[in-house]
Amino acid sequence: MAVLCASICRFLAGCSGTPEKLSASEAALLQWPHLAGMQRSKLTMPPLDVDMEQLDTQLLDQLAKRWGLEQQLHGWLARAQRANFGEELDAPASPPEAPTQEALAKSADARARLMARRTRS
C-alpha cells in the first residue's frame, strides 16, 4: 500500500493544475491504466466501453503529455477503438441458415430414439 501511495504522490507531483483538473474524469482515465500497469498492482485495465463524448479530449491529451502517459493513453485508446468503445456494431446480422434436410432427418431420428427410451423406462 505504501508503494501505491508513493506512486500516486510522485504521479501527482508532476501535475500543475487546479484541483478540478486533478479530480476530473480525464485525470482518472489517465491514472487508471498507469496504476494498473504497475508491477505489484492488482488493478485491471479500465473497461473499453467509455463514452468518449463525455470527456474533454484536449484536456486528456494535455494531461497525458504533462504526466508522460501518452504511450499508455494511446495504447488504451487503440484497444478501445478496436472494440468500438464497447458498443454493438449497427451492421445488420445475417439471417440464420435454414437447416438442411439431412440435419432435420437426424434430429427427427434422435427425437424418436429418445422418446422410445422414455417409454421403455
Protein model, in words:
Residues 87-121 are annotated as: Disordered. This protein has helices at 2-13, 19-22, 25-36, 57-67, 70-82, 101-120. By secondary structure, it is mainly alpha-helical. It has one domain (2-86). Helix 3 (25-36) packs across helix 4. The radius of gyration is 26 Å and the shape is elongated. The chain starts with a helix and ends with a helix. The mean pLDDT is 78.
Q: What share of residues is helical?
A: 55-70%
Instruction: Give the overall silhouette.
Output: elongated
* Helix/strand order, N-terminal first: HHHHHH
- How many E-type strands? 0
Region (Disordered): 87-121
Q: What attributes characterize this protein structure?
A:
single chain; mainly alpha; 6 helices; elongated; 121 residues
List the topology elements.
Layout (H helix, E strand, L loop, with lengths): L1 H12 L5 H4 L2 H12 L20 H11 L2 H13 L18 H20 L1
Could you provide a short overview of the structure?
The protein is an all-alpha fold. It has helices at residues 2-13, 19-22, 25-36, 57-67, 70-82, 101-120.
